[in-house]
Amino acid sequence: MTAVATKPPSSSSGTAIPPRRPSSAPMRFIKSPRFARAMFLPAVLVFWLISNKLIENSWDFDSSVLATPREVWDFMWAEVTRDTVAPKDLYETFGISLYRLGIGFSISMILGTTIGLGMGLSRAVNAFFHDWVMALLAMPALAWALFLSLIFGFDNKGPIIAVVLAGIPFVIVNVREGVRSTPRDLFDMSNAFGVPSNKRTRHVLLPSLYPFLFASARYALSIGWKGLVIIELFGGQDGAGWTVKFWYDAHRLHGVIGYSMFFVIFALVMENAILEPISRRVFRWRPSLNSPDIVEEEMDALYDVEELNRELDANLPTGSTQET
């Protein structure tokens, strides 16, 4: 028999690194996005109850004004079942608002994409529209709501224009930056091979714009929805914003919170049932969409290795012998 000195795999610090210990199943579940999403609602309920208790103990007023989760749930269920005292039920209310939102969103996406393409491709067009876009970005939705309510009154024109004015600057800016970020080398190569301009736009420019178009759609929907609710609240006679004002005037806080929760549910449905599936389908060829998960796994592995190295530095020798 001969004693042969062997050196196990080592890290940069010279210490041996044993194989990574697999995480237990409970830890993997706790660190998963599914668990994080499941914990959101309980965390909100706990925060809600604690806030109510703190307000009751800090201010001397009628605590019955505060809405409890049970009251809000009962109100929302009554609205879903059309058991309401409001002039229009939940479905009529959201139907009116979604009609306005759909028209305004479509206009803002079409006009915003067209202007954004022009600003990204032409310096003169960019110089012409730049200050207008900055002015639209700086204008608060409340100012548009009051201004358009005075001009158009209570019909659909004011809310639709409010959605357009609230969302179109974000579409323009995102599309313009998307055009500017398109790799120049791809255009040079297509020019060198004599690719027609229509095919160059379809196969080079548009694929580079897809992420920016999806970001534009999300911004236009969210900002447009906020602008729509504000103008309906201040200058409308129907719609979701007006219904919130109805329950506010009735001094029913659970009604205000309940309709606010319907807004949240609407946003989550739009994101998870419509935008996210379309995004996954369009970008299914891009593994980089899962990069946050990949980075998180790599960081966890790095932390585990560093922890093992510290243990080895304290407890294990730097070399070992093995008899053969």
Could you explain how this protein is built, in words?
The protein is mostly helical and about 325 residues long. It folds into two domains: about 5-30 and about 295-324, no CATH class; about 85-285, MetI-like (MetI-like fold). It contains 13 helices and two strands; from the N terminus they run βαααααααααααααβ. It has a two-stranded antiparallel ribbon with strand order 1-2. Helix 4 packs across helix 12 (about 255-280), helix 10 runs parallel beside helix 11 (about 240-250) and helix 10 runs antiparallel to helix 12. The radius of gyration is 29 Å and the shape is globular. It starts with a strand and ends with a strand. The model is unreliable at about 1-10, about 290-295 and about 320-324 (pLDDT under 50).
Set out the fold topology.
Elements: E1 3-6, H1 25-30, H2 33-38, H3 40-58, H4 69-80, H5 90-121, H6 123-138, H7 141-152, H8 157-180, H9 184-192, H10 197-235, H11 240-249, H12 253-282, H13 291-315, E2 320-323
Antiparallel strand pairs: 1-2
Mean pLDDT: 80
CATH superfamily of the largest domain: MetI-like
Biggest sheet strand line-up: 1-2
Q: In the CATH hierarchy, what is the architecture of the largest domain at level 2?
A: Orthogonal Bundle
The percentage helix is: over 70%
The major beta sheet can be summarized as: 2 strands, antiparallel
User: How large is the share of residues in beta strands?
Assistant: under 5%
Strand tally is 2
- Termini separation: 6 Å
How many separate structural domains? 2
CATH topology of the largest domain: MetI-like fold
Instruction: Sketch the topology as an H/E string, one letter per element.
Output: EHHHHHHHHHHHHHE
Overall body shape: globular
Derived structural class: mainly alpha
Q: What is the name of the CATH class of the largest domain?
A: Mainly Alpha
Provide the low-confidence segments as ranges: 1-8, 289-296, 320-324
Radius of gyration: 29 Å
